[in-house]
Write a structure and sequence with these properties.
Distance between the termini: 50 Å
Helix content: 25-40%
Radius of gyration: 16 Å
Strand content: 15-25%
Mean pLDDT: 88
Largest sheet: 5 strands, mixed
CATH superfamily: Gcn5-related N-acetyltransferase (GNAT)
CATH architecture: 3-Layer(aba) Sandwich
CATH class: Alpha Beta
Low-confidence stretches: none
Shape: globular
CATH topology: Aminopeptidase
Strand order of the largest sheet: 1-2-3-4-5
Number of strands: 5
Length: about 150
């Protein structure tokens, strides 16, 4: 197992993982993946994103970027995606811990994580709580008929 920064060469394998994530978690919400937007986002978050390699294959990705807290202007690492292939999920915590250590080394004091409400929410909430996170906000989505 190896964790390292994401590179341009990781783009195809990362997109495969993101497609798996979309199928597993986003499709229920009517969200689709726009290839152009994905490429733009990938380039934006690549300098602060990491991948998990197991047995020579990219099996996990942790993508995020640094933003300013809108109240205090403190730097915050904002997770955009954290996804590990189902059969390799036992390595997911190591990927998160790696990101936390990277944040410490870069003097980033906060990490925000999101949780899709259709992805074993209770398990994720329990996991995040055990890892020292606390809930801050829940978002709701509604489709607007513009027909």
């Amino acid at each position: 197992m190896n964790i390292r920064p994401v590179t341009n060469e990781d783009y195809p394998a990362s997109m495969m993982l993101i497609a798996e994530f979309a199928e597993e978690s986003l499709s229920e919400y009517g969200t689709y993946l726009d290839p152009e937007r994905l490429e733009q986002t990938y380039k934006k978050v690549m300098p602060t994103s990491f991948c998990l390699i197991v047995e020579g294959k990219l099996v996990g990705v942790f993508g995020g970027h640094i933003v300013e807290d809108f109240c205090s202007k403190r730097p915050v690492y904002e997770e955009v995606i954290w996804y590990v292939k189902k059969d390799k999920r036992k390595y997911g915590i190591k990927l998160l811990r790696y990101v936390e250590e990277w944040c410490k080394a870069n003097r980033i004091e906060r990490i925000t994580m999101c949780c899709m409400h259709n992805s074993q929410t209770e398990k994720l909430w329990s996991l995040y709580t055990k890892l020292g996170f606390r809930p801050m906000e829940t978002r709701f989505i509604k489709e607007i008929d513009n027909g």
